[in-house]
Amino acid sequence: MKRGALALLLALGTQLAWALPTHAPVPGGVAVVDLGPASTPRPQAAWDDRRLAVVSDGGRWFALLGIPLDALPVPLEIRVRAGSTVRSIEVPVGTRHYPEQRLTIREKRKVEPAPEDLARIEREQAHTADLKRRFSAAEPDPDFARPADGRLSSRFGLRRFFNGLPRNPHNGLDFAAPTGAPVRAPAAGTVIDTGNYFFNGNSVFIDHGQGLISIYMHLSRIDVGNGQRVARGERIGAVGATGRSTGPHLHWTVLLNDVAVDPEFFLKTR
Ligand SMILES: [Zn+2]
């Protein structure tokens, strides 16, 4: 087959794949990599030592690679194992501009934690690092519904300054909504953690399968328990302003292969 014809077929395949996230091979984005016809058994894909989600759509297998926000514009190499065959695929990485954002937090301690807060923060980071690395067998449904109504108030990737101090970039998407507004699961999954965190406030973690994990923060109320199965659209809690927050909103993080990616790439309408 001619190269042009193959490229056209691949492009068509991606377009027909309505359930997949948007193919956006940029820092903070998702590369949707065609692995061939789904008539063969599901291949395994990995980037470094991280397993990747492999989902079927439109009769083909696709690997979903979450690209870190700090990735350089150089190709990433993924390894694909099908039966006894292992091959490498180079995924080109483009560039994307993320603007700055300056916020004022009234509770100074949430920006410059007191010495007694640091032990708690460290404990929480170790706990969530384990959760984020999970890779469960279930095939995820990457066609997400919106978890909250309301305007998108802060986009993913903003380079942030709190009270003038540089902090980590914004690793999720914010919805402006009043305290008590419902927060819903964007797709089916299993609740793998609920709790109150120093920065993130009341939080819920949902494992959708194969390293696709979503997190809901600053909640005023949590309506689900650890280990609970949730359906697409099921209420999991309510919007709030707990933790480090300028006001009531939902912060939504989406992880793929332990990498926070822009949740907007998963939002389509059914
Ligand atoms: Zn946020």
Query: Can you give the helix content as a percent range?
Result: 10-25%
Mean of residue pLDDT values: 91
CATH class of the largest domain, named Mainly Beta
Shape: globular
Taking all Cα atoms into account, the compactness measure Rg is 19 Å
- What is the H/E order? HEEEEEEEEHEEEEEEEEEEEEE
The H-level CATH homologous superfamily of the largest domain, spelled out, is: Glucose Permease (Domain IIA)
The major sheet is characterized as:
8 strands, antiparallel
Unique ligands: zinc ion
How far is the first residue's CA from the last residue's CA?
34 Å
Approximate strand percentage: 35-45%
Number of helices: 2
Strand count: 21
Query: Ranges with pLDDT <50 over ≥5 residues?
Result: 9-17
In short:
Helices cover 12% and strands 39% of the residues. The protein has helices at 3-16, 115-132; strands spanning 30-37, 44-47, 50-51, 53-57, 60-66, 76-82, 85-91, 100-103, 152-154, 159-162, 165-166, 173-176, 182-184, 189-197, 201-209, 212-219, 221-222, 229-230, 235-238, 249-256, 259-261. Strands 9, 12, 14, 15, 16, 18, 20 and 21 form an 8-stranded antiparallel sheet that branches. Strands 3-2-6-7 form a 4-stranded antiparallel sheet, with no helix packed on it. It has a 3-stranded antiparallel sheet with strand order 1-5-4, with helices on one face.
